[in-house]
Amino acid sequence: MPNDDLPDRGLALKALAADLVCVVVFCTIGRRSHAEGLSLAGIAETAWPFLTGAGAGWLLARAWQRPTALVPTGLIVWAATVIVGMLLRKLTSQGTAPSFIVVASVTTAVLLLGWRGVVWALARRSTTRS
Question: Which of 58-76 are b and which e, b meaning 16 or more Cβ less than 10 Å from the residue's Cβ?
Answer without folding.
Answer: beebebbebbbbbeebbbb
